[in-house]
Design a protein that fits this description.
Structural class: alpha+beta
Order of helices and strands: HEEEEEHEEHEHEEEEEHH
Strand content: 15-25%
Number of strands: 13
Largest sheet: 8 strands, antiparallel
Helix content: 10-25%
């Protein structure tokens, strides 16, 4: 097994085959050095803009049925791991439900059980976009994983998040919650993930599953091996940037419609403040 664990290694192997048969279309990007943007990683999209980043009408569900050429592994009868068809990072995985479940509904115990099972042997940066206003491109439930090696930093803002948890840095000026992860792998990890999710969404005023069918506002979830964060959102676009959960991890994608000068003048934190609920 490689350093990325069972599923990360399988994802790379499947990527080679899927790209060869045309099912996988990696996006060409290049690092962009911008003033006032560290430690954010800004990449410029050099490929044609993929459909999921375009604003257009309803799209067919790509997960019912899913493209079996992108399938990595089925996880029992409830979920499966699928390659992201348009990855910026090779091995980008989607954890999807095999039957229809709404992306805009509450995440459920089965989602956390399967996430914890995958995370036990292939960890990295997990993220979830709750609806289009939070950056979701599809209405069918899918969580996403960028696998990381054990020695690899999970995201550009990891050290800032750790510093906040240790009380060494001031919080950001938007509404979010971040907590330590402490439970070991297995059922305890799944229970902790679900508990943190429900505590944070309720604390942010998004409601709770027993009271409403859908959360009360758009939100993102980010999960590293060490912390769990939920961000309350107001909109997806600002200054021509499409911002999903990865923006709050320190990753931004510069496209033809992005206002590069605005970002250099105001900085990425101001961009995030603009699309998140004010604190």
């Amino acid at each position: 097994m490689g350093v990325l664990g069972r599923y990360g290694t399988a994802a790379l192997r499947c990527s080679d085959v899927a790209e060869a048969n045309g099912a996988l279309i990696p996006l060409d990007t290049a690092l962009e050095g911008l003033a006032r943007c560290e430690p954010f990683v800004i990449r410029r999209l050099e490929s044609a803009t993929p459909k999921h980043l375009r604003r257009e009408g309803p799209k067919p569900n790509p997960f019912l049925p899913w493209d079996q050429r992108l399938e990595v592994e089925r996880l029992g009868s409830s979920h499966l791991l699928l390659l992201n068809k348009f990855p910026v990072q090779r091995g980008h995985l989607l954890l999807i439900t095999q039957q229809w479940r709404p992306q805009a509904g509450w995440l459920e115990p089965a989602d956390w059980r399967q996430l914890a099972a995958v995370d036990a042997c292939t960890s990295g940066l997990w993220f979830f976009n709750s609806c289009p206003e939070a950056g979701a491109s599809q209405p069918h439930r899918h969580l996403q994983l960028l696998p990381r090696e054990p020695s690899e930093v999970c995201c550009p803002l990891d050290s800032a998040i750790r510093a906040q948890l240790d009380g060494l840095e001031a919080p950001w000026p938007w509404r979010y919650r971040v907590s330590h992860r402490t439970a070991p792998a297995g059922a305890e990890a799944a229970a902790e993930l679900e508990r943190l999710y429900l505590e944070q969404t309720e604390s942010l005023g998004l409601g709770q599953p027993s009271m409403s069918e859908h959360p009360g506002a758009p939100y993102n979830v980010l999960i590293s091996p060490d912390w769990f964060m939920t961000v309350a959102r107001t909109r997806e676009h600002a200054a021509g940037f499409s911002v999903n959960a990865l923006g709050f991890a320190g990753y931004l994608l510069l496209t033809n419609g992005s206002d590069r000068d605005w970002l250099e003048r105001h900085g990425p934190l101001e961009l995030l403040r603009t699309v998140a609920q004010p604190r």
